[in-house]
Design brief:
Elements (H helix, E strand, L loop, with lengths): L1 E3 L2 E3 L23 E5 L10 H11 L4 E7 L3 H4 L7 E5 L1 E2 L2 E2 L3 H7 L5 E4 L7 H13 L3 E4 L2 H6 L6 H4 L3 E4 L3 H8 L3 H6 L1 H12 L2 E4 L4 E4 L4 E4 L11 H12 L7 H26 L2 H6 L1 H10 L3
Parallel strand pairs: 2-13, 3-4, 3-8, 4-5, 8-9, 9-10, 10-11
Antiparallel strand pairs: 1-2, 6-7, 11-12, 12-13
Length: 299
């Protein structure tokens, strides 16, 4: 790991501890029940959430539970083989806030990803607030989950018992931090570290160079390619993160490993399909090859 001004450049050997071979007598319970909460008609989830679920299974979760509005179940079912589904009551495909239903949906869940394809809905604020106020699990907040959080009092991040992982791109980070994209671009490491430290979160700031920081430790990940600039790529990354949280405790190094695996799988997919023709699902299909590459790299 190369140190540059107290910031570390993350490399393939730094990932190895998270992709070791498993014991032969392992069972699915050893690798965690993880949840993925999101979806609505406008962003039907038939592609986004299916891809996300596949990514979480590819990256090691024991059982993936897709938590979705009841009305979009039929559009998602044909795309899922391994994941289980938990339906929540909805209004016009937007989940209705119900503490008892949320508790049932999150029963036995070790880690949760929230916000992908969620859409805009006032109940989303109540749902996110309830989870952060009442649970103590790792929570990956992405996409519309980040947009929801940006409308809330961010002091909730200081009071939650959850270990929160935020995965914004620049526009989403602008909404969260209230700092302009132009200013962020001048010194993204500085602003990412500041936000992460002040809000006690792990922040993954997406970009040509991905920044992962908790305000103390900061890693830079230079993996990926132009072919990943396509719909669903962020959902795949969140799936990888929550999938690995089924087996490992949250840390800056774990999240950096997930970003590295995602970028490496994207590079492999781009080589196979070209930067023009590849899609987010191709990145998912190349996760196994990325893991093999990491395993086979000599120390």
């Amino acid at each position: 790991m190369k140190e540059i001004n107290n910031v570390s450049e993350f490399n393939i050997k730094d990932c190895k501890e998270f992709v070791k071979e498993r014991n032969k007598d392992s069972n699915k319970g050893d690798f965690g029940y993880i949840g993925i909460l999101g979806g609505c008609n406008m962003y039907s989830g038939a592609v986004k959430l299916a891809n996300l679920s596949a990514a979480s299974i590819r990256s090691g979760s024991g059982v993936t539970r897709l938590i979705i509005p009841k009305s979009i179940e039929q559009s998602i079912m044909p795309y899922l083989l391994e994941a289980t589904i938990f339906q929540l009551k909805d209004n016009n495909s937007h989940i209705i806030f119900s503490p008892s239903n949320i508790d049932k949906a999150l029963n036995k869940i070790k880690a949760l990803a929230i916000g992908m394809g969620w859409g805009e809905n006032e109940d989303n604020i109540e749902i996110l607030k309830y989870i952060l106020d009442n649970y103590s699990i790792p929570v990956v907040i992405d996409a519309d989950g980040l947009n929801t959080l940006s409308k809330m009092n961010d002091e909730i991040l200081l009071n939650t018992k959850c270990k929160v992982i935020l995965t914004p791109h620049l526009k989403e980070f602008e909404r969260l931090s209230k700092i302009s994209i132009e200013d962020i671009k001048k010194n993204p490491i500085k602003f990412a570290k500041k936000y992460a430290k002040e809000h006690k979160v792990i922040l993954l700031l997406k970009g040509h160079t991905t920044i992962v920081t908790d305000g103390i430790d900061t890693y830079l990940i230079n993996k990926g390619g132009a072919g990943m600039a396509t719909a669903g790529s962020g959902d795949v990354l969140s799936g990888i993160i929550v999938g690995m949280l089924g087996s490992f405790d949250p840390s800056v190094k774990l999240v950096s490993t997930c970003a590295y695996i995602n970028g490496l799988a994207g590079e492999i997919a781009e080589e196979k399909y070209t930067d023009i023709a590849m899609r987010a699902h191709d990145t998912i299909e190349c996760i196994p090859e990325a893991i093999k590459t990491i395993r086979n790299t000599k120390n």
